[in-house]
């Protein structure tokens, strides 16, 4: 690398350390800092330390932008790519949750702090807020342990007088099954017989007529199966994935493609799930007990 470029790089690093890597941080210690740098063939090797306001991924991209905008036009050169080698996150506390993510190489818990060692990351990884998401994941999992479930929680503000003197402790599902009003079809799936259906419809009509209509609500019909990206945006995939049913589309809509499987079912009189997997794609839709996901999809679209 020519000495002239090296001299300009040194000047840019001085600017980065004094100004650009500190922007957005109230205290200079909260920003980022290039503690050392070397030149190796046509590469520039930097050691970057960051605070809690300017993350290492953001600092690295800032460095690239400064180099590209200043060295590129002057010397007619470009930056082929950037790599973050052996990135390390140091937390000021000891975490108690487990993290099973491919990008984590190792976790070392000490008395009062935690060291998280990551795999090498390229520019595409840095453009995703991986570090921010990882820190939020740790915080969310810590909150789940603290509150005994999802990080969301409720606090009782006020309670009315108790209306029922005798508390009902029996399982209503068992009672309804015993009298033949419902029948379990599968996990979370029930068949409602006419008496129970009639009662539910009466309650539904009462709720609609007395509450929803006076409030100005109007009826709409939404799909029950949603794309995975909807659950990712709403947070349900990250919070209640263990309570969902997933659906897959067929690899082909041509019935002739299923001839071998149809013949198998005809002869063996069984529907083998292992055999069926050969004809379907990976799951792309899900069914959740929650009812709010379609609203997100509707307004985003």
Set out the fold topology.
Layout: H1 3-18, E1 32-40, E2 43-50, H2 56-75, E3 83-84, E4 88-91, E5 104-109, E6 114-118, E7 121-122, H3 123-127, H4 130-147, H5 172-178, E8 182-186, E9 189-192, H6 194-212, E10 226-227, H7 228-234, H8 236-239, E11 245-247, H9 259-268, H10 273-276, E12 285-287, H11 293-300
Antiparallel strand pairs: 1-2, 3-7, 4-6, 5-6, 8-9, 10-12, 11-12
Helix pairs in contact: 1-2, 7-11
Structure in a nutshell:
This protein is α+β, with helices and mostly antiparallel strands. It has helices at residues 3-18, 56-75, 123-127, 130-147, 172-178, 194-212, 228-234, 236-239, 259-268, 273-276, 293-300, and strands at residues 32-40, 43-50, 83-84, 88-91, 104-109, 114-118, 121-122, 182-186, 189-192, 226-227, 245-247, 285-287.
Describe the structure in your own words.
It is a single chain. It is built from 11 helices and 12 strands. The chain has helices at residues 3-18, 56-75, 123-127, 130-147, 172-178, 194-212, 228-234, 236-239, 259-268, 273-276, 293-300; strands at residues 32-40, 43-50, 83-84, 88-91, 104-109, 114-118, 121-122, 182-186, 189-192, 226-227, 245-247, 285-287. It folds into 4 domains: 1-81, Alpha-Beta Plaits (2-Layer Sandwich); 92-118 and 129-151, no CATH class; 172-212, no CATH class; 226-300, no CATH class. The protein has a 3-stranded antiparallel β-sheet with strand order 4-6-5, with no helix packed on it. A 3-stranded antiparallel β-sheet has the order 10-12-11. A two-stranded antiparallel sheet has the order 1-2. The model has no long low-confidence stretch (mean pLDDT 88). It is an alpha+beta fold.
């Amino acid at each position: 690398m020519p000495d002239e470029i090296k001299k300009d790089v040194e000047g840019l690093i001085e600017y980065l350390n004094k100004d650009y890597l500190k922007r957005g941080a109230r205290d200079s210690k909260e920003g980022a800092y290039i503690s050392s740098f070397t030149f190796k063939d046509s590469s520039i090797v930097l050691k970057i330390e960051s605070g809690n306001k300017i993350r290492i991924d953001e600092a690295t991209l800032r460095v690239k932008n400064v180099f590209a905008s200043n060295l590129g036009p002057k010397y007619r050169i470009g930056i082929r790519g950037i790599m973050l080698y052996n990135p390390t996150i140091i937390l000021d506390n000891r975490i108690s949750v487990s993290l099973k993510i491919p990008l984590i190489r190792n976790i070392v818990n000490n008395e009062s702090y935690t060291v998280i060692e990551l795999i090498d990351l390229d520019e595409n990884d840095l453009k995703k807020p991986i570090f921010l998401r990882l820190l939020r994941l740790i915080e969310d999992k810590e909150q789940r342990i603290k509150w005994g479930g999802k990080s969301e929680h409720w606090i009782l503000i006020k309670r009315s007088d108790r209306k029922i003197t005798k508390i009902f402790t029996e399982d209503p599902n068992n009672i309804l099954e015993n009298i033949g009003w419902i029948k379990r079809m599968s996990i979370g799936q029930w068949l409602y017989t006419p008496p129970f259906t009639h009662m539910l419809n009466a309650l539904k009509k009462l709720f609609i007529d007395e509450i929803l209509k006076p409030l100005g609500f109007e009826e709409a019909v939404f799909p029950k199966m949603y794309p995975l990206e909807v659950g990712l945006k709403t947070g349900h995939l990250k919070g209640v994935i263990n309570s969902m049913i997933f659906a897959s589309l067929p690899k082909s809509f041509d019935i002739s493609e299923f001839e071998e499987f149809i013949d198998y079912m005809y002869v063996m009189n069984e529907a083998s799930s292992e055999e069926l997997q050969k004809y379907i794609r990976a799951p792309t839709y899900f069914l959740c007990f929650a009812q709010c996901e379609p609203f997100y999809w509707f307004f985003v679209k």
